[in-house]
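Notebook, bench 3.
Goal today: get a predicted structure for Tetratricopeptide (TPR) repeat protein from Rhizobium tropici so we can plan the truncation constructs. The sequence was checked against the plasmid map this morning, with no discrepancies at the termini. Length recorded as 289 residues. Pasting the sequence as submitted so the record is complete.
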Amino acid sequence: MTTSVKFRTSNLSLPVSKRAAVLPALAILAAISLSGCQTATTDNVIQIDKAQGSSENIASLTSVINANPQDPEGYNVRGTAYGRGGDFNRALGDFNQAIQLNPKFYQAYANRALIYRNMGKLPEAVADYNAALQINSNYDVAYIGRGNLYRQSGRDNDAFNDYSKAISLGTTDGRAYNGRGVIYQKRNQQDKAIDDFSKAISLSPNSPEPYNSRGISYLAQNDDDNAFADFNHAIELNNKLAESWANQAFVYERKGDKAKARRSYQHAVNLDPNYQPARDGLARVGAGA
């Protein structure tokens, strides 16, 4: 279940049925839920925007740096653009320079942590989030980022504490509520999960991830109608997510409509051939049958 990833600077954010029918499906539902949580989710990855890393944009940001070479903010902003453009090595170099110029630049530590995470360097990412929080113990972005890392590593209790801390600080970042909701969901505290997902939706109404998350909790409560509405809305917001189509297909499957389930599962597989819940679902309803 993926939330959108944002880099941070000091001044701005740059553009992260019936019960008898339900019981046999519980194991399948759990598989969908867990697999969805492990995909992110955009919590886990930077959404690449090539325009951010375009030669024109980089040249403009470089001219700012050349005019003020001792200003760490310029390197932080250009590092953000490199990161959004997918050039992680250059992004890392700029964040390193920003931190060298200002060792107390906690936003740059958090930005570098996100780059490390996307490079698969999780210990380095955790260390940078820790450094950001040592400098500013009220920095909600670092708690959310570290919470995502903890959740990715299976440290759900630590992740829960970080999300809750960000929420207690009054964060307006929906990822904190979505992340904590996923943990409530795994603990089978579905009412609390739904409350958190609903809050995430209110903060990030254009993000499909909390709709998918909430829909899964509705399914766990046998509320197929609300689940179906959430999955459909997730598709309306972004029709390129395999998870949304597989979730929609699962509702069709529970309703006994194998033809529609098959089409949605197939669409999910077409979008992401490695998305296992869709592959498993297609096998259950009969691919090409």
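Residues 1-6, 9-28, 33-44 have pLDDT under 50 and may be disordered. The longest strand covers residues 7-8.
Flagging this for group meeting.
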